[in-house]
Amino acid sequence: MKQLKLGLSMFRMGYHIAAWRHPSNQPDGAMDLGYYRRIAKIAEDAKLDLLFMADELAIRGQDNPPGARQRSSYVAELEPVTLLSALAPLTSRIGLVSTASTTYSEPFNLARQFLSLDHLSGGRAGWNVVTSWGKEDAANFGHLALPDYDTRYDRAAEFVEVVRGLWNSFDADAFIRDQASGQYFDPAKMHQLNHEGRWFRVKGPLHMARSPQGEPVIFSAGDSEAGREVAARSADVVFTAKQEFEDARAFLADIKRRLPAHGRAAEEVIVMPGLMPILGETRDAARAAYDRLQELIDPVVGLASLYDRLGDLSGYDIDGPVPEPKDPAFRSRAEVMYRLAQREGYSIRQLYLAVAAGRGHRTVIGTAADIADEMQAWMEGGAADGFNLIPTHLPGALEDMAGLLLPELRRRGLFRQEYEGRTLRENLGLAPRAAVAA
Ligand SMILES: Cc1cc2nc3c(=O)[nH]c(=O)nc-3n(C[C@H](O)[C@H](O)[C@H](O)COP(=O)(O)O)c2cc1C
Description:
globular
């Protein structure tokens, strides 16, 4: 029987906009390794596939409406690859996946960083490829404006190929290290990349042995045509923020349909929609847990949560309809949000209350059986191979998942009892990638 692959998004003390105010949270957790260590332990004991870190390269958005920022926890975060490297020796099986931008890095730096994490963790590293959509990110890297969409994706496509080329600098058996003969490696098994493309000239090789899992696992989350093509060509796992079953099913089918053109089969790519479960022993208890969090949202923070996606709504009646997005930098999420508001007939206030919880991800409130029903239906209906679990607050919501939801999934045979392998690629059931020609 097919089983679900499950990741835990470990961003920002939880995704609920008021997560840091939850009485069970550790308000200074974002800067504390001990906090993340506790979360990683619960997630690994629960046999989750991976810990996922999102990332941004700036404090995004303005203090708009004024006063919102000083009430928000996102102004202070650890650099995620460094954090995951610190977690590597404190964990042994769970995958360690970080976001990193192709727009504001060089392939050589990034290939080196992630392959180091991979070695330090015994083959558990993953890279979530993003192009970064924030204009505040651009301003931290000497750009006057956000590089345009096509430019970012054109660079991203080449960037990923260069990184993969560098990861293949040495064959798996290149290092002989024979103290008796004095030969350290076989030069026939070292490959110089000599890449010359539109964006990058990289000679290589990368001075590091091949990954214990062949190559670190590549994740991507783009939803546009260009984003989907990068995913189909290069990603092992595709994240998405689809809210509705039919959208998710169409997305999964579209990704899998693109694979043969890149010489790949459907089972080589795992599609994981985000899912925020809000759990309780009963439906009433789950609803009460949700209400408790929603009550912690300051209205000024609620309005600010819509600003980056839908623009400045402060001139509109907060209890009136949501205006159509005009030129959003973050196309797919803006559309998702606008469609949600239209479908549900949400006012601006109702929309921020609805999205503040999931930050654009599907939110399901209920018992373990309710949520397992949904997950099972999505998997069996071809809308998901697994889920990127989005906790409202950490570690509280993770404890609920581990204590309530996972036992229910296991009872149904939908989730593992034990890790299958040592590396992230093995646990995800992904075959080694075919090497990129040097
Ligand atoms: C689950 C998920 C996680 C994402 N994480 C990040 C992130 O950490 N940093 C970032 O800049 N963008 C992130 N994105 C944004 C995507 O990289 C991408 O820009 C977005 O989905 C829109 O797709 P498009 O750019 O192809 O339109 C994420 C998207 C999703 C669905």
